[in-house]
Amino acid sequence: MELTPEQITAIAEAKRGGYEAVIGLEVHVQLKTASKIFCGCSTRFGDPPNTNVCPVCLGLPGALPVLNREAVELAIRAALALNCRVNPSSRFARKNYFYPDLPKGYQISQYDQPLSEHGWLEIEVSPEAGASGLGAEKRVLSPEASLGSARDKGASGVNTEKEKATKRVGITRLHLEEDAGKSLHEGFPDSGEKTYLDFNRCGVPLVEIVSEPDLRTPQEAYDYLTRLKQILQYIEVSDCDMEKGSLRCDANVSVRRLGAEKFGVKTEVKNLNSFRYLARALEHEIARQVAVLESGGVIEQETRLWNLAAGRTEPMRSKEYAHDYRYFPEPDLVPLVVDEAWQERIRATMPELPEAKRVRFIREYGISEYDAEVLTATRALADYFEAAAKAAPDGKLAANWIQSELLGLLKEAGKEIEDSPVGPGALGELLKLVAAGTLSGKMGKSIFQKMFATGKRASEIIVAEQMQQITDASEIDRLCREVLAANAPQVEAYKRGKEALFGFFVGQVMKASRGQANPQMVNEVLKKLLGGVARDWCPVARDSC
Ligand SMILES: [Zn+2]
């Protein structure tokens, strides 16, 4: 049943509250290897079409695949980071289907014996969302639950003991497979009648990461994908660039009445190729399903495509079932054996993961949870912060300056933290000068901007522009005396009770020192001098003052 957008909106607005969504994500991630998974062709993105191909990835008769060890290592790395159990033996399988961009007529994937299973990652949830999270916990205890979730039942569901509730989202499996080619439907003079094929992507290694149906809202799905991407980038298995297609996401979505145990019929929504539209597409599909059910229809198990321009999901094809693919073990590849020792070697090279880093930053540098979240967003930013914090007098100061000064300038310049003209050591050096009072906060910021624009260090700029803060007591004393001597009428007025003029004197001294005098010392010296003005600075009536 296809309803009009107006019908969907109207019905969903009235009835959405009585339903709960059940969402699982299937994420495909291209692994960052130099060559393809079963041949030596380059995986480079953006090369001219059909230049990185050979008999193996074109599926020519008699060509035999050879497994790329690096692809396996990156996949194991991802599996370990996502708390998956790596199976000691796994097997490749042929997934048979016809599609123009699949020259072999089958895709080499993994089916009944995947590389790894039973993993999880944690997302933060708001307290209201926690209620449905408890539902998820109940579900994983039911017989249909996966072994992994049942095994970890003590830790699954919502942990409300922390300040923010965390929810553990199960990962059913992570397996290896090859990518297909690309069909180009536009960009050619005869694109109206013809589809062009680029086989460069055929055989680029992928991992498919399938979540449990543990997600309950589009926001949770968004958060899950964000965390997943963050972890995969930290461990450097993929650049996860959605624009280049190195991270792609499909969602399985169903709805059920609140309190119902049984899952509804699900649809698969494809083409969720941007974070921005993921939540919107899911929101729309949930509303559509509620509207169909409420108007007496049934949900067809089908694959739907997110149409960005139209802002809705559209039917693409009826959902295929596993038996449609005639899976069978790949006869040209031996089983993949991963022993403990291999896993351990990979584990030993694993960097600190974002969650562990957040906790450690809060403990070691005394920064807030919010700051830790921002500063661990990418591994490069976290590394920058840590190096700056070590070079600076304290971590909190470094955290503040990075967030209030550096990130803004980077954004303005369209630069990534990796390309920051101010290195963490240079920032630390500047912060030492600010903390020691050699520079005022204001001067520090002005110098920082110059450092960013020129790439020079603080010390160079200070020398070149003679910007050092004046903290020498006799020098400040001299400046104050000069200003008072030059402004005798104002001093006179001040003495007669016009105290507001004090600010004027401070301003004049700051001006005379080109903003370099330490303002606190100027204040103190002026107070002293104006108090004692009778003797030293009352040129009008020396005796009577
Ligand atoms: Zn090839």
Indicate the topology.
Blueprint: H1 5-15, E1 19-30, H2 69-81, E2 85-86, E3 89-90, E4 92-96, E5 106-110, E6 116-125, H3 127-140, H4 147-151, E7 158-159, E8 165-178, E9 182-184, E10 196-198, E11 205-211, H5 218-234, E12 247-257, E13 267-270, H6 275-294, E14 302-307, E15 312-318, E16 328-329, E17 336-337, H7 340-348, H8 354-365, H9 369-375, H10 379-391, H11 395-413, H12 424-435, H13 441-454, H14 458-465, H15 473-486, H16 488-495, H17 501-512, H18 519-531, H19 533-536
Parallel strand pairs: 13-14
Antiparallel strand pairs: 1-11, 1-12, 2-6, 3-17, 4-5, 4-16, 6-8, 7-8, 8-11, 9-10, 12-13, 14-15
Helix pairs in contact: 1-6, 5-6, 8-9, 8-10, 10-11, 10-12, 12-13, 15-17, 15-18, 17-18
The structure holds zinc ion.
Zinc ion binds at residues 36, 39, 41, 53-54, 56-57, 203.
Describe the structure.
The protein is an alpha+beta fold. It has three domains: 5-337, no CATH class; 351-465, no CATH class; 473-536, Arc Repressor Mutant, subunit A (Orthogonal Bundle). It is built from 19 helices and 17 strands. Strands 1, 2, 6, 7, 8, 11, 12, 13, 14 and 15 form a ten-stranded mixed sheet that branches. Helix 6 links the parallel strand 13 (267-270) and strand 14 (302-307). It starts with a helix and ends in a 9-residue tail after the last helix. 37% of the residues are buried. Zinc ion binds at residues 36, 39, 41, 53-54, 56-57, 203. Zinc ion (ZN) binds at residues 36, 39, 41, 53-54, 56-57, 203.
